[in-house]
Write a structure and sequence with these properties.
heterodimer, A: 314 residues, alpha+beta, SH3 type barrels, 5-stranded antiparallel β-sheet, 37% helix, B: Arc Repressor Mutant, subunit A
């Protein structure tokens, strides 16, 4: 028996009820398209249609039964007026739409204030019952403008080049990068763009929330290399935690359940490691690698020197 | 569930929706296909069917009880309760609702967003995206319990969860959740901590494991004046003080976003920067090493100097 046949009966009832209005408004839709829309296999959709075919108003003569035709691979429905309107939204569906609208509101620029007004009206239109989220109870914003994401996705599809203004945090540098975007991926809730960077001559990952501007690149560039993922090697380091374990755990993504004070951490960039350690005020101490230990000491000493000379209190 | 039972439930729904008057059980057994056997087994079948339809959210009304006439109870589904009614929607509104639903792709409420989208598309209104700028919305909420929290807020149910303290110990918290939202790249949950009887803010990334909704719906009232944006502003983001710092040219981009430049020098700019949380501000300043130097106030300056001395002392080879 296939895994899918263990589906809950209630899921099937709901899908059958939702199929009728969808078919009514999409007469002649193909079976495979329909299966995609409802996220099930074509076999399952065919079973559903066969079941619906046996349903209708009391009497159950051809006059009352739902009339479906689907033998040519395209589905049409007749005589299903009773179920033709979509079901009311469930409270979780209302929640999803309200939060989604709240987020869109945050993403729309001031130039499109008329759209904001439309969204505000929609938020009121969606049936709020006593058990729905009040708009004042949620706040969904995003560090990445949806228009940036759209531009990147379009460029990936069209294989065009872009000019990014990018803030590289570890080096604390702001600059232009000419890139050929490859894909967007997510890791632990952070979105990254994988791209061939012409400025670096290699593949690079860019955090979407650090992109400060995007424009089309008019520069003539050689075609990019084959699409292969770059592998940046992770390097091991050893730290000792003297202060808050939670702070150390959050900054270095330590194993949350271990209370050991000496722990192994992984890093991609030595600049990152150095800055993270410095921001811990001496509560997390780097033990290895020794060249990074030395750099931290030098960097902290340089800053101290600045306090005692250049920026002496008046 | 057998196909025959599925058919019977669909037929029952259709009949109860189509009827203009309440259908009694005997009407139902006589006219709807699939009810068979002794009268007790038909009764049992119908009771179960009714419960199943109610469990999936279909409102079945009971009525027609008139003691004077010794009437039998009747049942019906009101079309206005059953079906989606958002009034007249324009193509632009449908397009915006579609974007709102698509934003959940791959995130916490994606299943509900997808079914909502199917219902909206079933209204048969053509989406009009022409008036909307090209957007690829992505809510990117990866906290597995986000759906549970949002639903508990909607239903006003209590929730339980383990919260990680600064020494990585876990404590069970019971909360009346009032609101959830993000700001400055972090997610916050606000509510009444039941054991402490105080309003508290929690970070979603410090919740360990699953959030569980407990008890009944409508278990508490949200204070009428509660407004999440204002609450987070007052309790977390309101600047408590500001510092005068020197930032090296071409550096300190994160700090510069909130800074007011008071003086531009040869190598450094002098900037006034407001901050809402001293220890977090100190961390950011230290992160910048000798590219950012605090000039005043003394309290911040001496804290940085002390921290730098500790770093130098602890790091030797």
């Amino acid at each position: 028996m296939s895994k899918e046949s263990k589906e809950l009966g209630s899921d099937r009832i709901l899908r059958l009820l939702d199929l009728v209005p969808f078919l009514t408004s999409h007469q002649g839709i193909g079976i495979s398209d329909l299966a995609d829309q409802f996220s099930v296999t074509q076999d399952r959709i065919l079973e559903d249609l066969s079941t619906l075919w046996m349903c209708g108003l009391p009497g159950y003569t051809p006059l009352e039964l739902i009339d479906l035709s689907f033998d040519s691979g395209y589905v049409t429905i007749r005589n299903a007026e009773t179920l033709a309107k979509p079901r009311a939204l469930s409270s979780e569906e209302v929640t999803a739409l309200l939060l989604g609208l709240n987020y869109l509101m945050d993403q729309i620029s001031d130039a499109d204030s008329n759209l904001r007004e439309i969204i505000e009206k929609l938020i009121v239109k969606i049936p709020h019952t006593a058990s729905d989220v009040h708009p004042g109870q949620v706040l969904v914003s995003h560090a990445v403008p949806a228009t940036y994401r759209a531009t990147l996705l379009e460029a990936i599809k069209a294989r065009t080049h872009l000019d990014l203004i990018y803030h590289s945090l570890n080096e604390d540098e702001m600059g232009h990068r000419i890139i050929a975007p490859v894909e967007i991926r997510q890791e632990r809730g952070v979105e990254y763009l994988l791209a061939f960077c012409f400025s670096a001559g290699d593949y690079r990952s860019f955090r979407l929330d650090r992109i400060q501007g995007i424009s089309d690149s008019s520069q003539e560039l050689p075609p990019t290399l084959t699409k292969s993922s770059p592998s940046v090697p992770k390097m091991p380091a050893v730290v000792r935690v003297l202060g808050s374990m939670r702070m150390a755990s959050e900054k270095f993504q330590l194993n949350n359940s271990s209370a050991e004070t000496v722990q192994m951490v992984e890093y991609f960039s030595e600049d990152w490691l150095m800055r993270q350690i410095m921001s811990c005020s001496g509560e997390v101490v780097l033990l290895e690698p020794s060249h990074a230990v030395l750099r931290i000491r030098q960097r902290a000493a340089l800053a101290l020197a600045a306090y005692s000379t250049d920026f002496k209190r008046p | 569930m057998s196909s025959r039972k599925t058919e019977r439930l669909i037929n029952l729904t259709i009949a109860l929706l189509a009827t203009k008057r309440y259908l009694t059980k005997s009407d139902i057994f006589r006219t709807i296909e699939g009810y068979a056997g002794s009268s007790e087994s038909k009764e049992r079948m119908f009771e179960r069917d009714k419960d199943e339809l109610r469990a999936i959210g279909i409102v079945i009304e009971v009525g027609g009880l008139d003691p004077f006439f010794d009437d039998e109870a009747g049942y019906r589904i009101r079309p206005e309760e059953y079906s989606l009614n958002l009034g007249a929607l324009t193509g632009v509104e449908i397009a915006l609702l579609s974007l709102a639903a698509e934003a959940w792709k791959g995130a916490a409420l994606s299943a509900s967003a997808q079914t909502a989208l199917l219902k909206l598309h079933s209204l048969g209104i053509q989406s009009d995206f022409d008036a909307i700028p090209s957007m690829a919305p992505n809510l990117n909420i990866f906290f597995p319990s986000f759906g549970v929290i949002a639903q508990a807020i909607a239903a006003r149910k209590e929730i339980d969860f383990l919260y990680i303290d600064k020494d990585l110990n876990r404590h069970m918290r019971r909360l009346h959740p009032f609101g959830v939202g993000n700001r400055g790249g972090r997610w916050y949950l606000v509510g009444l901590d039941v054991d402490k009887n105080e309003q508290r803010t929690f970070r979603l990334d410090r919740i360990d494991g699953d959030v569980v909704a407990v008890g009944l719906s409508e278990a508490f009232e949200v204070p009428p004046q509660f407004y999440l944006v204002d609450f987070l502003q007052t309790n977390i983001f309101e600047p408590v003080d500001s510092a005068l710092v020197a930032i090296r040219h071409g550096k300190g981009h994160v700090l510069r976003r909130q800074a007011t430049i008071t003086e531009t020098g040869e190598e450094f700019d002098r900037c006034q920067i407001p901050f809402s949380n001293l220890s977090q501000f100190v961390e950011v300043l230290l992160w910048h090493g000798n590219d950012v130097i605090v000039i005043s106030p003394d309290s911040v300056r001496s804290q940085i100097i002390l921290a730098l001395e500790r770093v130098v002392e602890a790091h030797y080879v």
